[in-house]
Design brief:
339 residues; mainly alpha; 4 strands; 4-stranded parallel β-sheet
Length: 339
């Protein structure tokens, strides 16, 4: 049942994305639909968490009056607990369903939606999750003409997207942990298939990720950390996590492309990986490796073969390359990457 639900949820999300993007280039719409799906996930997860927390007082989180003193007391408790356990916080007025319903009522929601997405990031500033949420929604420019040449046109299309996603049931039953993340990954995969060679990013097929994950974990029960120097959207790292089945597994990765880097962090959170257990960095792994002083139980990668790099002579003194007489050519960093 969980696997069937994952397939149905993934297809449902893809149908929404495919039917609503209109004439927009698929790579552009991808960033928005993934961001909105992630926002819905955070909102739904927080709602369930808050209502369980307030169940003894028979308080429904979404109905808390933020203008009252009692309402503020409840929100203070929820915020403190959610920042600790989930890593972020949303007020009842900022929940996905509230913004989506306002859009469905023909209200102008673009400013409010922008503020909400900013507030999600701002809520993490004093929490240990700040690095994992920093700049996560930067690619979602709601003033872009890609959604329409006027503010009203953009508001209409974005309201339609949120309205369609609002009807999707993510289902957070304990028996279906990870369903939302797998559906999110299905969506990433479908975008990769659709863009094909037009995209500079290559998505590793899940069958390849599963094979590599099983090989790396075969007869190896001592994996406490895993690293991918070219992690993409994180599918290979997540495949290893599924094989290891250790909730405390530490996950590390790096990705040069900013959009894919954001997808990787979203992917981790949507798969239920604790914000304290993953560290994904943005940057060029060969030129500026972010985890150079770390050691890992396992390292996995599908290297970006035929990629270029600076090939600067300064790298001859780099500990990674200094034992070799030559550097990889700037037009082909394959050897440098493997080292």
């Amino acid at each position: 049942m969980p696997q069937q639900h994952q397939k149905e949820l993934g297809k449902q999300l893809w149908n929404i994305a495919n039917s609503l993007r209109g004439s927009m280039y698929v790579n552009d719409f991808r960033d928005y639909i993934l961001g909105f799906v992630f926002y819905k996930y955070l909102s739904d997860k927080l709602t369930i968490f808050a209502e369980q927390l307030l169940s003894e007082d028979e308080v429904i989180f979404s109905r808390i009056d933020e203008a009252t003193e009692q309402g503020q007391e409840y929100l203070k408790v929820v915020k403190e607990e959610s920042l600790d356990k989930l890593g972020y916080f949303l007020k009842p007025s900022e929940l996905f369903q509230v913004i989506a319903e306002r859009g469905a009522s023909n209200k102008f929601i673009l400013d409010d939606l922008t503020n909400v997405l900013n507030h999600i990031e701002q809520s993490t500033l004093d929490a240990g999750s700040a690095d994992n949420f920093n700049g996560l929604f930067d690619e979602l420019d709601l003033t872009s003409n890609k959604f329409g040449t006027t503010a009203d046109a953009r508001n209409k299309l974005i309201s339609k997207v949120l309205g369609s996603l609002h009807k999707v049931n993510f289902q957070f039953e304990s028996s279906e942990i990870g369903i939302q993340g797998d559906a999110f990954e299905y969506l990433i995969n479908m975008f990769a298939i659709t863009t094909g060679k037009k995209s500079l990013e290559v998505y590793t097929p899940q069958m390849i990720s599963r094979l590599l994950a099983r090989l790396i974990t075969l007869d190896n029960s001592n994996i406490s950390s895993v690293y991918d120097p070219a992690c993409g959207s994180g599918s290979l790292l997540l495949s290893v996590a599924k094989e290891v089945k250790d909730p405390d597994l530490k996950i590390y990765g790096q990705k040069k492309n900013l959009k894919t880097y954001n997808q990787a962090r979203m992917n981790m959170l949507m798969h239920g990986i604790d914000y304290a257990n993953f560290d994904i960095k943005n940057g060029n792994t060969i030129e500026k490796p972010a985890h150079i002083n770390h050691r890992f139980s396992a390292v996995v990668a599908v290297p970006p073969f035929s990629t270029s790099w600076s090939g600067s002579p300064a790298f001859k003194s780099d500990p990674r390359f200094m034992d070799y007489e030559k550097l990889a050519p700037s037009s082909k960093a394959d050897f440098a990457f493997m080292l």
